[in-house]
Each structure stands twice: as structure tokens, then as C-alpha cells.
Hints:
The chain is an alpha+beta fold and about 350 residues long. It has two domains: about 5-70 and about 175-345, Aminopeptidase; about 70-160, Beta Barrel (Elongation Factor Tu (Ef-tu), domain 3), CATH 2.40.30.40. It has helices spanning about 5-15, 25-35, 145-150, 175-195, 215-225, 245, 265-280, 295-300, 325-345; strands at about 40, 50, 60-65, 70-75, 85-90, 100-105, 110-115, 135-140, 155-160, 165, 170-175, 200-205, 225-235, 255-260, 285, 310-315, 325. The strands form three sheets. It has an eight-stranded mixed sheet, with helices on both faces. It has a six-stranded antiparallel beta barrel with strand order 4-5-8-7-6-9. The protein has a three-stranded antiparallel sheet with strand order 10-11-17. A hairpin with a 5-residue loop joins strand 4 (about 70-75) and strand 5. Helix 1 (about 5-15) runs antiparallel to helix 4 (about 175-195) and helix 7 packs across helix 9. The radius of gyration is 21 Å and the shape is globular.
Amino acid sequence: MDTERRAFLDELLTTPSPSGFETDGQRVWVEYVRAFADEVTTDAYGNAVAVHEGGGDGPEIAFAGHADEIGFMVRRITDEGFLRLTRVGGADRTVSKGQHVTVHAADGPVQGVIGQTAIHLRDPSDDEVEDVAEQFVDVGASDEGEARELVEVGDPVTFSSTVHDLHGTRLTARGMDNRVGTWAAAEGLRRAVAADVDATVYAVSTVQEEVGLNGAEMVGFDLDPDVAVAVDVTHATDNPDVNAESRGPVELGGGPVVARGSANHPTVVDLARAAADGAGIDYQLQAAGIRTGTDADAFFTSRGGTPALNVGIPNRYMHTPVEVVDTADLVAVADLFGAMAERAPAFAPFAVDV
């Protein structure tokens, strides 16, 4: 990954974007794609769409990642000045205590910690982790009045962890889910523009996936493409505490993960596999027998049915502050999207042969 592309990724990952509060992150994405897209638009809730206008009668294909990350919100301010929380999306109660957090208040970020009673003071026989609603943030306020000068109910809260390089091409940060997907969608569009493909190509950054695929439902209806490809993280199963026999196998660094079954249209699967083979891109397969758990589940039922596909980016430790991806996988996904955009006319119209 070159310096400019890495700088874009880092800016996405360090810009807080919890569900319902994606505006700052969307601004970063929109500013980047404006440099090469023919047009960039946003809607009332902040979904962002960038387009390359193809030539002739080529099909329309959308590559979409979701901009939002999981987190918390301030639910209540106690008499003593502590903040009680509610979850935004699938926040994991087992990893939140003892973490640095940032409350994104109207007057600017407020630093805090999610309290954890010292091991010396806890009953050794009672190490059950409380639900998020029972946990609290300490911002240093001495009472309720002092806390209310800093924050208010409904302010979003995110972990304060940031981006760190691991060995080789491995990278860790919070919110890889799914800023890496919006990065890949943008880069796939950039490759399509550079190749001047005949297909009309959309890069999409959706909102509120973590709380119900809401943005994809909006975009899928308004955009109505011939094909919608949702790019999201998927569970890597190559770390020691995952039962790969029941979950995978999916390997970090093994390339894009092409899902089959449920929302994944067979012809779009064939397009992805042919594009990967033709471009020499290694890829992995994943079974999705019931649902994908991604924006693809919203796209494929839009209007009269939109041929869809879920492409996964292998991710370790999902929904924790220390998610890990391999940047080689990100580049490979973007390359795959560029190759799919080039080959799309050959696979249109996208329909099963009954």
C-alpha cells in the first residue's frame, strides 16, 4: 500500500464514526473520492455515493462499505458525576472495562475511562463481567453538575485506541469494521476510473449498518444498480481461540473472501471468481447458508431484487478495540473490484437461468 493510500486509511480509522454519528468520517471519505469521481452525492442521513459514468450501455455496479463503527452513548449522568452507558451496535461487554474512551461532546472530545475495580478489591469468586448498562465512565468530574458542563445524555462514546503497525503488513485499530470496507470501495472505484471501464461504477459509504443495515436500505432503493457488492470484514479463523472447524477456514493474508449462498447471486459470484482468476488475485470462499450479516442482506431485496454479493476482508478480534487486518488483503479487494468492473459487461444481464 503506497503512502497516499495508507494516509487515507489512517484518517478513516482515526476519525470516530459511531452509528448515527458518521458525519465526520463521511467527510473524510467524500473529500478523497472527489479527486477522481465524476460526481459525489450524499443523502439526508449521510450515505455517500461516488460515481464513474461508464460508456455506452454497460451495466451499473456498486461497491459499498459501511462507514459506522460500534460504540456507546451516554445514557445517564449520576449524582456522583459518572456516566452510565448504552450500547451502539454490538459493543462487547467483556472488553470494555478498564479501557480509555472518548466522549464526543458538542464542545469537543472529553477523555474518560470505563471503570474497573482493582483486582485487590474484587471478590475472586465473582468475576462475572457486568452488562454495558451496569458499567460506567469516569471523566474526572466530582459531581453531576460538573459532569453536565462537559457532556450530555446522548453523546456518543468510542474507545480511544488508535492505529498501530504490527509485523509485516498487519495492522491493528478499533473500527476496522468497517472503514477498511469503505477504503476498498473507494479504491475499487479509483481503479475503475483509471481503466476507464464501460460499466457505470458506484462507490458507496453507507451509514448505520451496525444497527440494522439502515443505510443500505436507503441507498439500495435510491440507487437501484444492476449489481450491489457489499464489502465488509469477516471473521478470520486462524488465531488460537477460534474453532476453525466450525467457522472457516478464513486466513488473514489469504485474500478477499467471496461468499456463496443466501443473498449472494450466483452470477455475481461467478463474476468475482472470474475477475480474480483473470487478474491473478488469490481469494477464499465462504458459505453463507442463511444470511451474510452485511449490507448485502439489505441490497439484494431492494425494489424487485438486486443481484448482490458479499466480499469479506479477513479480520481478527472483531468488535474489540484491537481488530487486526492484513493490508495486503485490502489492496487485493480493491484490485478485485477494479477487475470486476472491467468484466461486468460480459456477465450482464445478471439473472439465473430458470
